[in-house]
Amino acid sequence: MFSKGRYRWPEPLKGDKPRIWYGGDYNPDQWPEEVWDEDVRLMRKAKVNFVSVGIFSWARIEPREGEFDFGWLDRVIDKLGRAGIAVDLASATASPPMWLTQAHPEVLWRNEKGDVCWPGARQHWRPTSPVFLDYALRLCRAMAEHYKDNPYVVSWHVGNEYGCHNRFDYSDDAMRSFQNWCKERYGTIDAVNDAWGTAFWSQSMTDFSQILPPRYIGEGNFMNPGKLLDFKRFSSDALKKFYCAERDELSRITPDKPLTTNFMVSEAGSTLDYDDWGREVDFVSNDHYFTPGRSHLDGLAYSSSLVDGIARKRPWLLMENSTSAVNWRPVNYAKEPGQLVRDALAHLAMGADGICFFQWRQSTAGAEKFHSAMLPHAGEDSAVFRDVRQLGGILERLGDAGVPGTRLSKSDVAIVVDYESQWATEHTATPTQCVRHMTEPFDWFRAFADLGITADVVPIRGHWDDYDAAVLPSVYLLSDEDSRRAREYVRRGGRLFVTYYTGIADERDRVWAGGYPGSIGDVVGVRSEEFVPMGSSADNDGALDHLRLSNGVVAHDFADHITSLADTVDVLATYQAGEFTGMDGVPAITLNRFGDGLAAYVGCRLGRSGLASSLPDLLDRMGLKHDPDVEGGRLLRVERVGGAGHSEGAAGGNRFTFLFNRTMAPVETAVSGHVLVASHATIDEDRHNAMIEPNGVIVTAR
Asked: Where is the active site (predicted)?
């Protein structure tokens, strides 16, 4: 049975050695059986060793209620397994078949206006439907009983991207579940009233039955912030409860097979509380799709670092990424030469021990027919498939060299991410709609990278207070406990960076009184009386649209009006503005001595470039290492360490260094160790250096 918080990784097929898993979603039910042998031949050619099967196959497995057809699935799993390709078998519950929703339309979710989400796409089921749960668990039981002894099934793929389309449901099922959730969380209706501040606008309740989901309240009106925040928490929990029910049913029958489900962690994604979910899987899996443009590599590295944090630095699986273009953006940019391999190795560098794509063979029909795949419409005689083959060879080489089981090396710096702070800052009645929690951490990650520092991205529940330095970037919600952690961290010698919009409210979204940042004002030594949002002068002629700092950088979007400082504070930069703004000479960046540590406060949004310009002075004053001359921040350097029975940094442990070009121009760098991979790069062995082209990567071992 499943034990919360345990870790188990899919074991290799009998007789095989541990390898980096490589493959993707495989949908043989979209193709006639005569294609399957060709698929297996080409998978072997590409060194594929792991595929996820049956994710959207419910209608094929159970074509009519109670009638199960496993014959086709048995045949394809047997073909794969005999070819040495392990199967990650789906519970197949991601989308219900038409016969189910026809017989039980009450399982369909409703939007905030009460409109039904009809069948025609996917995830049109409501997470709180007891009827749908019964059908899903029956399928799980049938799948588990049939495949419990199959030697080729190495793991369970439970559901798929929970909440991608059915994150919020406003049905009566959801209403009753939300009421019960509130009762479990708060105990009494008076506690709910207190948490939500219902004395405002006469919203006080006398019974749990009066709690409604945040249904439509009219255009331009404002939902109670505490209620909305709790509904987002509830929605994450409701989907998690559904997943856990499926997981437990599968685990009860097949206790030897590890289980996972694919998260959707990205630079700005906050669909579910994935750190909370991370404790409910045997191993963490993630789907990531690139953001086109100059932030492509940085965004990938940032999100994968967060996945590594959610996994607590244990190996995780990249369940989906794309070989090239996706199909769901207004403009679906193709990947550039080198990016397929570079992106995969970036995920690997950040802790993934498996690299998979959506999907194996590109569809010729359906909504995703223009989504790229490992085997594209053009077939094996294509640049994409040649890159897929190249990547397979690289991963085999790195597997043989000992990468599996090593871990992402711990950085000196942790950047804290909090899903609940993001949810709270999404409310429509905030100081500015231009600032959310998630607008800030990525800027800090990129700014540190510009200074040659690859920071770790750590969930707020993680061990960020074990790092030499930590950043609380617009962490809007700080509970008593998290405020205490920050206070004790600095008191005992930690170096803490705090930004505007941090520590504004407690976990109920009730504002800390006494000035900002209310919960840790003593730690940073500053007190702000008012927010100073900045907009666009093009939108509002003459309105404040920026503030220049005395250190030469410019703030946009948001600033704090700091009016008082502790005696222990040094002011490092002030605003230089017209007197009419009231901001001239106001502190913008400060440094406070607190206990044995130091707390910097950045009271405005500086963006990546402003932070990169301001950080060297702060780092020097805080005694933190940085080397702005290391390729000028043009390379992203990542290390995986340990393995072979050794702890991180132990003598004899493996150490793999990944160097990625972050720019659009070639970068020359020194190279040490044995070169394992040089993609879009040339090595000069005599000079011990290399030229890394755009989209290039070098991997070395020592």
From this structure: 161 (proton donor), 320 (nucleophile)
Rounded CA separation 386/222 (Å): 53
Q: Would you place residue 325 in the very low, low, confident or very high pLDDT band (cuts 50, 70, 90)?
A: very high
160 is in an annotated binding site: yes
Name the nearest CA neighbour of 5 among 283, 311, 315, 280.
Answer: 280
Distance CA 424, CA 421 (A): 5
639 is catalytic: no
Q: Is residue 544's pLDDT more than 50?
A: yes
328 annotated as ligand-binding:
yes
368 in catalytic set = no
What pTM did the predictor assign?
0.97
Whether residue 262 is annotated as binding a ligand: the answer is: no
User: Residue 538: pLDDT band by 50, 70, 90 thresholds?
Assistant: low
Q: Give the CB-side neighbour count of residue 119, counting CA atoms within 13 A.
A: 14
Q: How far apart are CA 700 and CA 659, in angstroms?
A: 9
Q: How many Cα atoms sit within 13 Å of 75 on the Cβ side?
A: 11
Catalytic, out of 246, 249, 280, 320: 320
- Please give the pLDDT value at position 626: 84
| pLDDT for 651 | 38
Q: Could you give the C-alpha distances from 87 to 36, 62, 486, in angstroms and in order?
A: 15, 20, 44
Strand partners for 689: 670, 684
| Token pair recorded at residue 22 | 């490589």
The pair of structure tokens assigned to 462 is 């993680």
Task: Tell me: pLDDT of 652 over 50.
Answer: no
- Which top CATH class is 21-182+237-404? alpha beta
pLDDT digits (tens, 9 = 90+) for 242-258: 999 999 999 999 999 99
- Annotated domain spans of the chain: 21-182+237-404, 413-622, 635-701
CB neighbour burial string for 268-299, b if at least 16 within 10 angstroms, e if fewer: ebbbbbbbbbbebbbbbbbbbbbbbeebbbbb
CA dihedral 107, 109, 113, 114 (to 10 degrees): 0
Convert the pLDDT of each residue in 570-599 to its tens digit: 999 999 999 999 999 999 999 999 999 999
What percent of the chain lies above the pLDDT cut of 70? 97
Give the pLDDT confidence score for residue 647 in this predicted structure: 40
Is 1 a residue whose pLDDT tops 90? no
Residue 468 has pLDDT above 50, yes or no: yes
Distance, in Å, from the CA atom of 153 to the CA atom of 144, rounded to the nearest integer, reads: 11
Alpha helix stretches (DSSP H) within 441-577: 441-450, 480-491, 521-524
273/423 Cα distance (integer angstroms): 10
Answer with the residue of higher pLDDT: 317 or 702.
Answer: 317
Please answer whether residues 261 and 159 qualify as being in contact, where contact means their C-beta atoms are separated by less than 8 angstroms.
yes
- Is the distance from CB of 301 to CB of 288 less than 8 angstroms? no
| CATH number for the domain running over 413-622 | 3.40.50.880
Topology adopted by domain 635-701: Immunoglobulin-like (2.60.40)
Residue in 62, 161, 249, 639 annotated catalytic:
161
